[in-house]
Amino acid sequence: MQLCADAGIVYSVVDPSDTTLLPFGVFGSQSAHGGENVVSDEHDGRGIRVFDLWVQTRPDEARRTMTCAVVPLPFSVPRIDVVPSGQIDPSAESVAAEIVHLELDTFEQRFEVRATDPRAAVALLDQRMMATLLRVPVRVAMHVNEDAMLLVAPLLQPGEVLALLLCATTLADRVPPVVASLYPPRPRRGPYEQRWLQGSWSPDPTSAHSSEPG
């Protein structure tokens, strides 16, 4: 709490947000989970937050603990997973089947990239994004699905939590604008709202009422 106060960061003991709405399995209804020690920058305005998370898959299992960062995104992409090579992702989040190779050897030595649509991974992970991930001072996994980015690390110390918040904010700043043009945000209503249920985005209406405004 004192670190956050000194840094001008908002601190909350419990997570006031509804994590069950996030498009990631670790927050799903199949397991009990809870967030605490939430930090965010109220001046940022994008809803980026970092919090400690516990997950208990079954009542007879011990809780798994980790520190997560959630970054809302201005687009909606198929699943992209960036996991540290040789490291355990404490979220046990499922990953896409197809491996994607990028043109940066140092990045491929440290991370494995998987994606439902390789074009999405190539568009998102440009040189600036990869350089930012390489400079993260803690070992993190990055999962991107629909309109959210999830960063996962082993349970962090308070100072490291603030470092992860800075990392999440920097990644949000460096998301390539081209991604939004390739994968527009999911419509909440109208003739385009079902297009993501096809498994990939399509510019064509998928409802019978294509002439209605979307």
Structural commentary:
- The chain starts with a helix and ends in a 32-residue tail after the last helix.
- It has one domain.
- The chain is 23% helix and 30% strand.
- It is α+β, with helices and mostly antiparallel strands and 214 residues long.
- It is globular and about 40 Å long.
- The chain has helices spanning 2-7, 105-110, 118-124, 127-134, 158-174, 178-182; strands at 10-14, 32-40, 49-56, 64-84, 98-100, 111-115, 141-153.
- Strands 1, 2, 3, 4, 5, 6 and 7 form a 7-stranded antiparallel beta sheet that branches.
- The relative contact order is 0.16.
Question: Could you write a compact summary of the structure shown?
Answer:
With 214 residues, the chain is an alpha+beta fold. The protein is built from 6 helices and 7 strands; from the N terminus they run H-E-E-E-E-E-H-E-H-H-E-H-H. It has one domain.
**Main sheet characteristics:** 7 strands, antiparallel
Series of secondary-structure elements, N-terminal to C-terminal: HEEEEEHEHHEHH
Which word captures the global form? globular
Strand content: 25-35%
Radius of gyration: 18 Å
Structural class: alpha+beta
Determine the N-to-C terminus distance: 45 Å
Chain-averaged pLDDT: 84
User: How many β-strands, per DSSP?
Assistant: 7
Number of helices: 6
How many discrete domains? 1
Helix content: 10-25%
* Poorly predicted segments: 192-201, 208-214
Q: What's the topology here?
A:
Blueprint: H1 2-7, E1 10-14, E2 32-40, E3 49-56, E4 64-84, E5 98-100, H2 105-110, E6 111-115, H3 118-124, H4 127-134, E7 141-153, H5 158-174, H6 178-182
